[in-house]
Design a protein that fits this description.
The chain has about 350 residues and is α/β, with parallel strands linked by helices. The chain has a domain at about 10-190 and about 220-250 and about 285-300 and about 330-355: 3-Layer(aba) Sandwich (Rossmann fold). About 35% of the residues lie in helices and about 20% in strands. The chain contains 13 helices and 14 strands. The chain has helices at about 25-30, 70-75, 90-95, 100-120, 150-165, 195-205, 220-235, 235-240, 255-265, 290-295, 300-315, 330-335, 350-355; strands at about 10-15, 35-40, 60-65, 80-85, 125-130, 135-140, 170-180, 180, 205-210, 215-220, 240-245, 250-255, 270-275, 280-285. The strands form 4 sheets. Strands 3-2-1-4-5-7-11 form a 7-stranded parallel sheet, sandwiched between helices. The protein has a 3-stranded mixed sheet with strand order 8-10-12. The two termini are about 35 Å apart.
């Protein structure tokens, strides 16, 4: 059980985006530990990802957008810790509407963190991304230079900075920079390279790799949820003001190597290489700090994740991997009603921060 930082009572944890890809994997883990989980989610992709737990006595739901100041006030009542998973995730989805990305990933994150600190929340965990490292041929740790090549990455760096600036003796922020996530959770995604290439191999009988020499660090969605658990369970002194790469140093692969892993399991599919790559991201990160400091060791391998996706398709759980519900950018493109503004007034600072040449400097 995750105990409250202030008593022996079960901790109440607020999870933004709790019905999302990582959130739907994290929810049953926390409930099984006896944690009281409050989810703040607009349920953009529906409630199906967490349907098995909807009637759980320790699950509390706030059905609203975390950009809504009123919803934030309601959701933060009597909360010990915040896990901030809610965001516009991925380069294509973020590029769809810069205003939505800035408002969601930076402005709303700052407001959530400021309100949490004012309301006595002790622990605040931000889901960030390995994409902040951008393009590098080096092995990268948490102190490596950040070289973002996308709006998504820049928005997360900015969010990291505003969160860390709020640190105090009573407010402990921590950051998880997730590797590229794969695998099956309550909310299935096929806009992720391992999942997508596996589906294409099985259904289209082709594995098309664009470029191929780009490095990525991978982590299964359940291991991503377990990394969050490790942050929640750690003494505040171990996670306060700390950044952790969340992944596996043994799961650094090029995109071509991922294609080859899938081809070995689906040999009937043709492995094709399209050298006209538009993906500039290239990073392989070290994940030794999170193991050393928090005792986190991933349980999944990429091969196991590929097999899991294959099973989901063979079982009929996935009827059409191209359905927009499985893709952040496709869904947002078709449901423009989600792209509206909550914040009025002058937020030029947020745009200036994200685009500033000084963003990546200490």
């Amino acid at each position: 059980m995750i105990e409250s930082d202030q008593s022996n009572q079960p901790q109440r944890v607020l999870v933004t985006g709790g019905a999302g890809f990582i959130g739907s994997a994290l929810l049953p883990m926390l409930l099984d530990q006896g944690t009281i989980v409050r989810i703040l989610d607009v349920f953009m992709y529906g409630a199906e990802p967490i349907q098995p737990w909807m009637q759980h006595p320790r699950l509390e739901l706030v059905r609203s957008d975390f950009r809504d100041p009123g919803a934030i006030q309601t959701a933060l009542q009597d909360v010990d810790s915040v896990v901030h998973l809610g965001a516009i995730v991925g380069d294509p989805a973020c590029d769809l509407d810069e205003g939505l990305t800035v408002e969601t990933n930076l402005i709303a994150t700052q407001q959530l963190a400021e309100t949490a600190r004012a309301m006595g929340v002790r622990r605040f965990i931000l889901a960030s991304t390995g994409a902040v490292y951008g393009a590098s041929d080096e092995d990268l740790d948490e102190n490596s230079e950040l070289r973002p090549v996308s709006l998504y990455a820049r928005s997360k760096i900015a969010a990291e900075k505003v969160l860390m600036a709020l640190s105090s003796e009573t407010f402990s922020p921590g950051i998880l920079r997730f590797g590229t996530v794969y695998g099956i959770s309550g909310r299935v995604r096929f806009d992720l390279v391992v999942n997508l290439l596996t589906a294409k191999a099985l259904i289209d009988h082709e594995i098309t790799v664009f470029g191929g020499d780009q490095w990525r660090t991978f982590i299964h969605v359940e291991d991503a949820a377990r990394a969050v658990q490790a942050m929640l369970e750690a003494p505040l002194s171990r996670m306060r003001n700390q950044v952790f790469n969340a992944g596996s140093s043994q799961q650094n692969y090029t995109i071509l190597e991922v294609g080859e892993l899938i081809h070995a399991l689906v040999p009937a599919a043709n492995l094709l290489i399209n050298e006209c790559s538009v993906d500039r991201s290239n990073y392989r990160i070290k994940c030794t700090k999170i193991q050393r400091e928090l005792g986190f060791v991933p349980q999944w391998t990429v091969e196991q994740g590929i097999r899991q996706v294959m099973t989901a398709i063979h079982s009929g759980r996935i009827s059409n991997y191209r359905d927009p519900i499985y893709s952040n950018v496709k869904f947002l493109s078709q449901h423009r009603e989600w792209i509206h503004r909550f914040y009025q007034g002058n937020h030029a600072w947020a745009y200036e921060m994200i685009h500033s040449p000084r963003l990546t400097r200490l």
